Amino acid sequence: xxxxxxxxxEAIDACNFRGHKMAxxxxxxxxxxxxxxxxxxxxxxxxxxxxxNPLPNExxxxxxxxxxxxDQLYYFQSSSGFFEIEMTMEQAESxxxxxxxxxxxxxxxxxxxxxxDKINPDAIRQELGEYGAWNDKELxxxxxNLTRIVWIAGCDIAESRLDS
Length: 164
Description:
Number of helices: 7
Oligomer: single chain
Strand order of the largest sheet: 1-2-3-4
Distance between the termini: 34 Å
């Protein structure tokens, strides 16, 4: 087995161990430093890179897919920076689909309740107020504000995957 093939197998094994579903490797180029190949996870888009002859200050297998689990946490940060909400991509996508998402948002609220309890309701109210979608009276309902911000956070995180 050629060195590049062995390295690809090692890389795929490492990525599979982290829960990734990797696409076929693409041979990106060959130069003085050897063969270079890359692949990506079809779920989270994290990448792995393989080089069969790395420079002295490089490694032969690298990339986020090797070191991070596919179910890693993603973050929504308020525009003010006063709070952030973390969730997996699966959680984010569960509340980011066409149609009514309220039932899924309520489930997710329960799953991340500990985080939400630490956020100042005034900070959420301020964040939601910047969207301009709710009037002052609606923004007084802290329970609904939590539902709104979880939905927004999930949609924002799910959209970020599409941008990467």
